[in-house]
Amino acid sequence: MGVGHGHGHQGASPAHAGARHRWRLACSFALIAVFFVVELVTGILSGSLALISDAGHMAADVVALGAALVATKIATRADSTGRRTYGSYRAEVFASGLAVLLMLGVSAYVVLEAVRRIGAEPHVDAGPMLLVGGLGLVVNLIALLLLRAGAKDSLNVRGAYLEVVADTAGSVGVLVAGVLVSTTGDGWWDTAVAFAIGAFVAVRAVMLGREVLAVLGQHVPVGVDIDAVTGALAAVPGVCDVHDLHVWTLTSGMHVATAHLVLAEGADADAALVAGQAVLRDEHAIEHATLQVEGHRSAACDAVTW
């Protein structure tokens, strides 16, 4: 019986790739964090629900960018306690969960505020909406340019990039609301656009929340076919059976697997371990795998019912 514990070494890891673009994340974080405050204050003073809802979306972006920054930092930090055997990679997942709660809170606020305005004629100052909406679009475009290069080789940066893409759409919505309010004099256009932004944020929050729960629930990663993984391991020379296969995500871009490989009589255990790890790494992008080889299927394994 033997156990192989494998890490892939093909190219830079996601954490290292993110670290190379840390300055891009930091600059984008600073830009969007400052503008979030400007947009929120302007939204409150002008009475624009669209600005307030977009500011909430931008706050979620601040959290997402902050999580990406933290992830690139802690990825290379050694555990001094000896108790975090997987390191602190899950910090990104917890930060994403916080972003989900924040986004849902913003959506709920927009709906409640819109309901409160029913029967009233809200006064909305279109001037600040147009000014801040235009400035927000510029800020988001700068952040997109900063993050675009890093998004090609870092999953952390790519996630932040997609967050900013979505927020750019929100800035366009604010501009549209400002133009409609200015040309028609009807403040309800602001509420209508705010509803649209709020719905967009809520949908994204639910989608992100499902991803967070899938990671915390240790589901099979999206894009990984568990039957194909089983078949690939079973096809390794010398392997006659595969059982107790588990594949899950530690954090974005980092998949983990464990499996028991039953060997045919006379098979080379070391060769099977190396080949099995290579199959997982090269064919299924699972760079961290712990494989146990067995001369026969253990009765202890069959006795475990979960």
Automatic annotation (TrEMBL):
PANTHER family cross-referenced by the UniProt entry: CATION EFFLUX PROTEIN/ ZINC TRANSPORTER, RE54080P-RELATED
Primary localization class, coarse: membrane
Pfam family, one: Cation_efflux
Topology within the bilayer: Multi-pass membrane protein
GO-annotated molecular function: zinc ion transmembrane transporter activity
Protein name: Cation transporter
Membrane in keyword set: yes
Record localization: Membrane
Keywords: Ion transport, Membrane, Transmembrane, Transmembrane helix, Transport
Membrane-spanning intervals of the chain: 29-52, 58-76, 88-109, 129-147, 159-181, 187-207
The organism's taxonomic lineage, starting at the top: Bacteria, Bacillati, Actinomycetota, Actinomycetes, Propionibacteriales
Domain Cation efflux protein transmembrane: 27-216
Gene Ontology CC: plasma membrane
Domain Cation efflux protein cytoplasmic intervals: 223-294
UniProt record similarity statement: Belongs to the cation diffusion facilitator (CDF) transporter (TC 2.A.4) family. SLC30A subfamily.
Keyword Cytoplasm among UniProt keywords: no
